[in-house]
Amino acid sequence: MKKTKRHPKSTASRLSSSRGSTAERRPGKQFPYQPLFDSTAFGIAETDLDGRILQCNPTLARMLSANRADCTRSRVVSFLPEKWHDKEDATRAEVLKNGVTDEYRVQLRKKDGTVFPVVIKKWLQFDEQDKAQKIWLLVRDMSNKKLQSDAMFKRAVLLVESQVRYQALLAKVPVGIVTIDKLGRIETINPAAEELLGYRSAEIVGKKLQEFVTSGSGQQWPNITSQAHIAITRSYEGKILSVQITSNPYRTQGPELYTCFLRDITADVQARETFERSQEVEIRLREGTEEIARLSDALQAEINERTRAQEQFQVAVESAPNGVLIIDKNGKITSVNAQIEQQFGYDRGELVGQPLENLLPERFRNQHPEHRDSFFASPNVRLIDNGGELYGLRKDGREFSMEMSLNPIQTPEGKGFLVTAIDSTERKRVESELKQTAFHDALTGLPNRTLFLDNLLRLNAAAKRHGHHPYALLFLDLDRFKVINDSLGHLAGDKFLIETAHRLVECTREEDTVARLGGDEFAVLVEQIRGPEDAVRVARRALERLAEPMMLDDNEVSVGVSIGIALSMTGEKNPENLLRDADMAMYQAKTRRSGYQIFDARMHARALERMRLEIDMKRAIERKQIHLHYQPIVSLDSGKLAGFEALARWNHNGRGAISPTQFIPLAEETGLVGPLSSWVFREACRQMRRWQDKFSVNDDCYISVNVSSKQVSHGNLIEELDEVLHETGLEPQRLRLEITESAIVENTRLAAHTLSQLKKRRIKLCVDDFGRGFSSLNYLHRFPIDVLKIDRSFVRRLGAGLANDHGKRRPYEIIRTILALAQILGIQVVAEGIEIARQLDLLKELGCEMGQGFLFAPALEADEAARFFDPSASMLHFNQSNAHMEEA
What we know:
The chain is 42% helix and 23% strand. It contains 30 helices and 33 strands. α19 (601-622) crosses α20 (660-670), α21 runs parallel beside α23 (717-728) and α27 crosses α28 (810-825). An 8-stranded mixed barrel has the order 25-26-28-29-30-31-32-33, surrounded by 5 helices. The protein has a 6-stranded antiparallel beta sheet with strand order 7-6-11-10-9-8. The chain is α+β, with helices and mostly antiparallel strands.
């Protein structure tokens, strides 16, 4: 059997990689060794010779707390602590040398950083040429010996060894072997079958065998049959072979598979076909004589029909309203109609036999002589032009605008072309007049508003596309123009506008656009400016030129002009808005009599808004118009009150409630966070002390206050707290400070000192919004953290339903992991943003200690919050309506 050309990649590698890639593409499919992968309690992986994981089973992925896709992109050594890297390199060298290793102990590291002991054994996989191809690993988790007993591990060792031997044997079998499922889809293929079909396994695994193998009659091959069949295969290079194919069922723990055996019988089939063809030749010779007689009669009928069609065609061409020529394949004119004679001024006899190019001006002739043959050989309709206008040449030498097209036809002399020529002179004249009227000002001839906005849109789009294409828009309005109309008349006013247009054009470059928008309003679009100074330069030039007097009917007149400038540096503004901004700036210039004004409304508005809010906030702090509200923190186990979080609220006299997300960052940026925080500390501690004196408060009840990153970085937080606690008489253990992760990370040295001082004073530290920011595990052991507050985004998704998060339990598992980590480190956990009962039930199920949210109560004024000190009240008997309120 002549072997088809194979790709250089080795067979064993193709067999292994094809299986792995197919399993990833079509999850759930059963392969001969998939039970070994999916049902064993031990981790199994295939790696390349450098230790990079090609695929792994679900058990190994679960051991590593990772998904299989992440594993297949990693090296084995990346899952080992650094102290075991040399051991991994040594065992990989051993298996490459000896083909197998003894069982050895190392530690693996999970995705969350925890390590666990394992036992690993390795085998080397060889290809059909006995070259090392890949490495198999069997991993036993020694921290879970109940599920992974010694007897089970020995059986797993035997299974892996069997699989290694099976793949090596499959690579060397000289008969083509293909494994398919009951639908005929290819699951595996050995090297012999690759040679026979001429494809690599990666190219055909997953496809139906019927795509490559058909029955001798051309019908689809029945893929499930125990009898031998003759079939046809077509290789990648188009080579056709005859094969004998049989199939047998192959049962696995999953769906039933079938093993197909293919043998090349091309030589036998070719011999049989040669004999059959010799018999067919004799029969065809007898039939040929009869066919010749029949074709002769048909040919005569065809000649008669074509003669009638030719006569009809000549009549149609002669009566056509457009000029029509017929040219041969060399471009010579063979026939013309009366319209061509009229258009070009020639008689028919003068045109027949002449090249078509003679009807075109010299500049259109033989532009691409090297493409002449291919041009006339093309079967497609073509418009003949010069990338723009096309002109015809009359006999008297005059040119006229025209359109010309070619269509291939068959003439009695052979292949030719039907050429249609249309005089477009009148149509183009009308189009030009319409375009001028639609896009230009009738008085001055300048572009009108429509054309100006079109250019503005084009320029704006270019600025957006290229990212740096700055331009400027100047809006001009003539001052006291009405005086000219009223005193000298509208005719004089029109002359003044025309002269104004001429002067503006003189002040600009050729690439700029000057337009009349209407009345005495003009606009200039200045392209490719380097900055505002370029626009100002044009404005000053226009002011100087238009200030010069002009003569109107022996009267010297002069008017002023006001110019508004709007800049677009990146194309971020809508063109209509840019024109509006320039108009607003023009009116500002007219009001101030400044000649020109650059628009800066947005920046000005923001500055005013910020200044006013800063002043109002300073007054609010001085006049104690910012109040504290208190949101209860509840023990989820007992339903009793654990404490309160103090939250600042600002009800502005004129603007109503202002969100803390707006005024807290402003306070930090303007330096007002100091006096604001001092007041919050004092008021919160003072209120907690009032409650202690008035109610029977549990020893562990506390007040929680937020601390900004600015307070931590300034370094005076400890002194301020000492003063507040001394002044209010509140015990330090009843105060908790909530700090964001970013505040710790921004200045770790100062944060470490500050937090250690808080620890000495028995003030507990809460990390607020845990999981939303850096979530670094490093600071959990570096700093004295007492409480983690799970960010509300995780709690909200927890209540949204597990099936909505891509069908996975991510929110649930993330919270479970945080709680497990906190329990190991001895840290309390508070869940923020509990709004529905489902969230509460899941958090209690996970063992979360405390929580807060609208399910229990929103942030309340001090008098309303006092009712939660009732010892008989359980916070778990919540008001259902709270679940629908938004979190403050």
